[in-house]
Amino acid sequence: MTPTLSLEDLVARTTDLPTLPVAALAVMREAESSTASAQSVAHILQQDQSLTVRVLRLANSAFYGLSRRVLDPQEAVVILGMRSVRNLAIVAGTYPWLAKPLQGYCLGPNELWSHSFGVAVGAQLVANRTENADADAAFTAGLLHNIGKVALSIWLEGKMAGLLDIAERAGLAFDEIERKMLGFDHAEVGAHLAEKWNLPTALVAPIRYHHRPSAAEPASYLVDAVHVGDYLAMSIGLGLSGEGLRYSFDGACLERLGITSDDLDELSLDFITSYNQHEKLFEEAVTA
Amino acid sequence: MRLAQATVVNLASLHVVKGTGRLLCPGLGSCLAVCALDPVTNVAGVAHLMLPKAPDNVSETLAPKFVDSGLETLLVKLAELGANRANLLFAATGGSQLFSFGVQNQSDLGLRNAEAFRNFAKTHELTVVAADLGGTSGRSLSFTIDSGEVLIRTLAQGEMTLCNFRSRNEK
Q1: Nearest of A121, A95, A122 to residue A110 by alpha carbon
Q2: What pTM value is reported for the model?
């Protein structure tokens, strides 16, 4: 296969591209601002009824164990905290297309969701260990890292077996095969979409470099955290698509993050606990 | 044909049963699924293990997360249900290499899990009927106790029989 389309052409010709709801983006931006308050976040939240319902549902879930029902969004923001509301807004905004099956990557319903949520939780855990790191940004970057697959999937339908065969014979990682065959990979497509959404550059970089963290200039803990989060999610088999584990791990990012092999095993244990604690909770809040 | 009732054995847990049923381990990456059957007493079990080595004095709750302590626990639970150690047959799958295809990487979790299983099996003289370990694909395992059939499924290769404990025509 010789590359025949530019990345921009491919995106322009792809229907049903993922989008991020305006309210979700606005909640994210407000929660990050230095002047944010429960009142200001709740005000933005209330502009999207379905988002408000989901946040209230989470606040009233068994996880928070409240003895009375919360009906006021502002109170919900106080109870859940700015971080949870921000993360929930992004999850609620992305879940509809993350939960869809992607034939091109041999991903069944919910498989991209479970993988992406796993990477979000993993990246957040890594960021929590890093001084001055923004763990919320790591969560968002992890959740969005594979958005390019949503756009590329239709172009890969029926081609996975052939691509894997080429990858096997050439000894190449799957993202390398995508670049060889298409001229770009799903990470670059995802970064292009993120730029179209006007996401901050700091969030675009982890999407673009999640398989090649050392290529990011300057080096970024967010890129490294998402790369390690991807490792953690794949280690427990979350959403291993047709290409499975056919990716390279860049050990240099562990050095940059100050994580040893023993730390990585410890992170794996924390990861499974945190993932199990939050995945169903968030999914139920955004789907029930 | 009526399918036997299925029990999903989640990550970092194990399940033992006497009689009939089907035990499933979906989504194995670098983790291992180890299944066991005593075909005489019909006691069976599956452990879904995550990391190779338990820390010292690991608690009972955490034990199923690790290959060494998880398999120790599996042997104890099987014996409690009446399995005879001499009759027990084992099969294992999983341990895919994480992000290091084609390269021997000693820090790779999948390789370390597979190695921990082999060491445990050797030390404890387990009768391992079949093992499909390593590679770069995610796998799922299905073990039907009545028939003794152990199936594995990968996205790339579809479903294949790993072994049949009762007929021992393992692959």
Answers
A1: A95
A2: 0.85
